[in-house]
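ugh ok fine here u go
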Amino acid sequence: MTATPSAASGARTSGATLLGFAPERAVYWNLGPAALYEHAVRRGEGVLAEAGPFCAVTSPHTGRSPGDKFVVREPSTVDQVWWGKVNQPLEPEQFDRLAADVLRHLNGQELFARDVFAGADPAYRVPVRFISPNAWHTLFVHNMFIRPTDADLAAFKPAWHVLHAPEFQADPAAHGTKTSTFIVVHFARRTVLIGGTRYAGEMKKSIFTVLNYLLPAQGVLPMHCSANSGDAGDVALFFGLSGTGKTTLSADPDRGLIGDDEHGWSESGVFNFEGGCYAKVIHLSAEGEPEIYATTRRFGTVLENVVVDPATRRLDLDSAALTENTRASYPIHFIPNHVAGGLGGHPSHIVFLTCDASGVMPPVARLTPAQAMYHFLSGYTAKVAGTERGVTEPKETFSACFGAPFLPRHPNVYATMLGEKIARHGVQCWLVNTGWTGGGFGTGQRMRLGHTRAIVRAVLGGKLDRTPTVREPAFGLAVPTEVPGVPADVLLPRRTWADPAAYDAQAARLADLFRKNFEQFQEQVHAAVREAGPPGPRA
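structure:
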């Protein structure tokens, strides 16, 4: 069925069809930001703030719902997927019932269709069609993915469909879900169903999950990381979960931004999966993050759960009244020094970012290749408040490959690929803690952003490659003795605690958590990697 909007809407009527749909109302195709703004305001989906961003509220879901994510268990996936808490199985007949009910629900809505690409490298690009009843979610998709040209759209053939039904509530008894919320991926049918949540991050992360399944078979390592490059073309990768600083630290005015969250590493180098950025904006400041801050004052940016004064329409970026996980979605070209095309060479530095709520990890440590593999598989951090439902304060967690919620395959698939690439290209690896110092959460304080920036610039500038190090005893990490612009006492966390004995106890407890978590990988890794974690318990 073709689109049936009014002529004034600017919608395309190209004759494209909707998968399995029999829409009863208008279908708007590939609208640009201005038209989507008009529809979103008309439909009461949100408000315009001062200077032009569109502001939406996604309550009650203001973060991802990883416990509501499913993969359909069918012949092509049964032996390939890492089944368990991350990838919960859904039977084909349950998917069929859910898909039929989602289609029935969407058929009665106005619909917005948006065709996009995932993957900046044309050799690995995946065409995706999103269908949503909301204009602002469609603007989010326009911002976050790679926007086809008019010529691309004329010949567009989606390889994947995402059916987005944020107001539809699943019935666990009928559909096999755990709650009324669902994110379901069917690899054989190349379809994603999302419902029961308005949080837009589920849309982008569902396609990241798809790429994490497809690309390893093509020799491409998919990565939950940001990436930037220097004037000489040197590329750096920043791995980390939400809240660890991937977006902030990669948006460096002295380096080109390749992307802030998701990338592939092929035989040719690194490429962005996306065409936009999805930045946390709580407590954002013009002084600390000027490039990102500027996007919150621009037409075309989508702000999620940011408090807006109803009279003046001014933003309050410091308010967590709705959630700590306030977000801005904007096209990557809103960052002045972005890398056009989203492509880079092979990385020379990899930085693993952790937000350590225990106050134990050093602000920077140089990693051996074996330590890099150990910490990649461990994926230690603290989940920051708001990034997932139910997380209200930092909570220690281990997330394999710094992205377990998005890994359809076993973590060792990705770790093996990373280890081979690190060895082949001689990549230097680092661990950087953006979390607490001087004590844990509630006692200490967050690392100063200025100190972390100084550390990262020293790392990428090669200033720490030959700096002497001291061995940190709890984890066996090599900590540089000096970093330009960072007080020496900050580099060794034990010195920042008022009570060294309390630090020792906290360090021993965290080291034990590392060892227990790594037991799941013991039989699958080389002995050198097994031995690269915290030394055994003290006698």
